[in-house]
Amino acid sequence: MAEPMKIRAQLSGDLLNIKVLMGHIMETGQRKDSKTGQIVPAHYIQHVSVGLNDKTVMAAQWGPAISKDPFLGLKVKGAKSGDKVTVKWEDNKGEKNSAEATVG
Amino acid sequence: MNELNTLRRTLLKGGCAAGVVAFAASAGLLVPGRALAAQWNKAAFEAKGVADALKGMGVEGLADSKEILIKAPDIAENGSVIPVEVTSQIAGTQSISILAEKNPLPLLALFEFAEGAQGYVSTRIKMGQTSSVRAVVKAGGKYYSAAKEIKVTIGGCGG
Fold first, then answer.
1. Which of A32, A91, B62, B111 is the most exposed place for a label (fewest CB within 10 A)?
2. What span, in angstroms and rounded, lies between the C-alpha atoms of A11 and A46?
3. Which DSSP state fits B74?
4. Helix B2-13 to helix B16-26 angle, to the nearest 10 degrees?
5. Superfamily, domain B42-152
6. Nearest residue, CB atoms, B123 vs list A28, A70, A79
7. Element of type H or E holding B65
8. Distance in angstroms (rounded) separating the CA atoms of residues A73 and B113
9. Which domains does chain A have, with CATH numbers?
10. What share of chain A has pLDDT > 70, as a percent?
11. What is the predicted ipTM?
């Protein structure tokens, strides 16, 4: 289930642009299976946190209406080349994933 | 005294010590830096109307602001992938929330910032129908808001 996560962390002046692409079905729980007619149970990311070195810079809570294979972009001041960016998520079924990238 | 010592040894030896650490972590006591909400806001995310969602978030006295910019398409041909970017120029922005007013569950996401993160977020959202998309910004304990209408072309026929 935990598909690979892609992180891009690029400095532009003193501003760090972080772009994250996660692999997740983001099932809303509102859709019916066309074959069985049953509602497909909700399965979506609820928590995302982004860390810079050992500090949390963003903590997000999501509902099911974030698009499939979610994209997240944020900007952080005060980062430098070589810093470590960590992204973690956890979904409503308790599945987790995390990935790291180094600021280029 | 003896009893206490025995208890202490048991704690140090056994899995109990690990249990205490796990509890502290789950209670958010070990989160470095500024404390960010650790718990998913069920009341707000499961609210079926905008008013209830805002209430669940503890929003009071929402003021319109021109310092919140929402960048999103005017017309979205595909309601399942709509890029949305929100920038808050309000000093001391603590969080940005995004709501699609006519979605079955209006609250889409809540982003909290700390440690140098700017009042900016970019993501992609799903919308069932044409609706206002509202960004709510918390800054200095107060709430500000801006909205933008996004027309969703049902069926994705490129109308």
1. A32
2. 28
3. S
4. 70
5. SoxY domain (2.60.40.2470)
6. A70
7. none
8. 13
9. 6-102 (2.60.40.10)
10. 98
11. 0.95
